[in-house]
């Protein structure tokens, strides 16, 4: 192991991670499968791209955003006879939670490098925190599954433990408070979604976008490894440009690339 991997000389005192697509669940697959299942059951199928577009928001807001898409709303009205309203958002959300709970166990595999990274942070007295679009009920399933792989964080805030989810900075600020850190310049937010990057901006901290393992590329680990190198380079280039345009300070492929970046900050 190189010196970069054993000792980090950095101004960062707190790293706040997202979960799906960043620490676990390569390609952020679990929410997409559940959302597509819910809409298909109602005779209004949605594409994976549509399911991924609002990713990072709290799951109720995510469902509301899907129903608010003109194409989805129009097809819903044609098939079901009425424009979807708040009551339908509530019904879909109520069904989402148990379905997501069923899938979490099979979509909780740590992304390569995540376990080693969190251990490295602790060796260097850097706090590991997390925020997520998942509720506490879902995190109570996901976190023990991650812990069985030796992947743990010091402080974890779920979307229903604050008044406003991402892009609000509230979850990040709660983690900062728990970690005893007041200065956002000492905080680094790592996320695979645009709203996660926006939350970092709103909190005044620096952000790292994850391009390859996250929602934007949307591939499983095996699909990612099998993708033609030229196509992969092209797609990651587009994703990187989009994250920079959204305000990301840095873009990496996966969490395994973070130690070298941290050492340069």
How would you portray this structure in words?
With 265 residues, the protein is an alpha/beta fold. It folds into two domains: 182 residues, 3-Layer(aba) Sandwich (Rossmann fold); 77 residues, DNA polymerase, domain 1 (Orthogonal Bundle), CATH 1.10.150. The chain contains 13 helices and six strands. The protein has a six-stranded parallel beta sheet with strand order 3-2-1-4-5-6.
Q: In the CATH hierarchy, what is the class of the largest domain?
A: Alpha Beta
Provide the structure class: alpha/beta
> Strand fraction band?
5-15%
CATH architecture label of the largest domain: 3-Layer(aba) Sandwich
Enumerate the spans where pLDDT stays under 50 for 5 or more consecutive residues: none
What is Rg?
Answer: 18 Å
Sheet with the most strands, sense and barrel status: 6 strands, parallel
Topology pattern, helix = H, strand = E: HEHHHHHHEHEHEHEHHEH
Average pLDDT over all residues: 94
Number of helices: 13
Give me the count of strands: 6
Shape: globular
Distance between the termini: 20 Å
Query: How many separate domains make up the residues?
Result: 2
Record the strand order, biggest sheet: 3-2-1-4-5-6
| Helicity level | 40-55%
- At the fold tier of CATH, the topology name of the largest domain is Rossmann fold
Question: What is the assigned CATH homologous superfamily of the largest domain?
Answer: HAD superfamily/HAD-like
